[in-house]
Task: structure prediction
Amino acid sequence: MKKNNERATVTSAKDYLIYLEGVPSAAINDVLVDEKGGRALVMSLDDKEVEAVMLDESRPLPGDIFKTSDTGINVHLSDKLLGRVFNPLGETLDNKAPLEASLEPMELEVVALGIGTRSMITQQLITGFSTIDVMVPIGIGQRELIVGEPRSGKATFILDTIINQKGTNTICIYAVLGKPESEIKHITELLRQRNALDYSIIIATSSADPSPLIVVCPQVAFAIADYFRKQGKKVLLVLDDLGIHAKHIREMALLSGKTPGRESYPGDIFYQHAHLMERAGSFNEKAGSGSITLLPVIQTNLDSLTDLIPTNLMSSTDGHLFFSSSLRSQGYYPSIDIPASVTRVGHQTQNVLFKQLAHLTKKSLADYRNLERFSRFSSELNIVSQQKLKRGVVIQELLRQNVHEKLELLDQLALLSLVFVAFFDNKDLKKVRVEKPALLKVVQSFNKLKKSQTLTDYPKIEQYFEFIKQELVPKLNNGQNS
Result:
């Protein structure tokens, strides 16, 4: 007997929360449909009743009739989803033709694949930004939390990262969780303008949508990501943001009468997020040889990092990038606070030269910060300290990029290496910013000419520095950057 032959009657209702009886074969995450087409998701079961939440705007009354759907959430998994914008129910938001109907129910509650299907994270996700690719790298298959203060530039960075995946055979999925409609339109329009929608999918819920639809959005996004991962594709999945998602989980829990825990969140809030994020990773042939790189987002400030949701998310991920509104207001982009950021597996994907360069750059920046604080109380610094201060300022300027500006890895390596071969030591700091665009053009042209040179030709960073000193610096000193 098919489930849709079973009928259920609403016994009580509280806003979008309903209780029904009469569906003995119902299971968690089954979808029930009423006579007007309204859809409800089964959340819990007991001996007498079924608890469900409405996924749309309809609000049933006691006595209304539901039946179980064979198709569930009606999103057909296929390559035709690329370039589309829709909500978790498969309803289009891009004024294009309706999506193809699903013939089978989407599996929402999926147990993460075990260690036997996992492979070592060895490839780097190239963002196009030196601050990330050199200093805090992200591996393909890594779960890197994006932590940002309001107006810190994290949303712009995420969009630029998606735009910079063009030509990398990466499928980008952007799950918008309870954002204003204006922000959804901005995301869609920017990706369209930059020709990034061809390899992207946007699953969007607005702040006006009911909480159950927002809560189920990440599960739908992961179901789509799993579809492409099984085909051996590289998937970049953004969940923006899980702070909003957690608040809607809390609202649903309080409405259903669950005992509140810390900060009034339900006791299983950690499980719900960790259960999702465990599905990301790099997978071997048993699981299709694909990968899901996850960038969950949460908006918070440095003082709130010890709150329940941020700490839960940090413990479920492989590191975090902290975006600072203070750095953004000073003109830094991407505005990442490097000392406050962590990547637990990213450095293992880097070439040895990048590892060594990252170490030298971080040390120079740390020396600069210490001396900069000291210099506020002392007017006299020795020559060595002055040189360290100058190098720190130059590094910060070289790490600063424009919105939508992408740097290739070799260009990042050569540009930062100039700091350590004394190229900037006798130059006026005021001219560094002015001359940087012309300098970068020479570096890019140089790397194109030297494309036969491979990074494996230089087992140590000192050898690469010598190569830069002999081959690139003379070109710059001869006035080719003018």
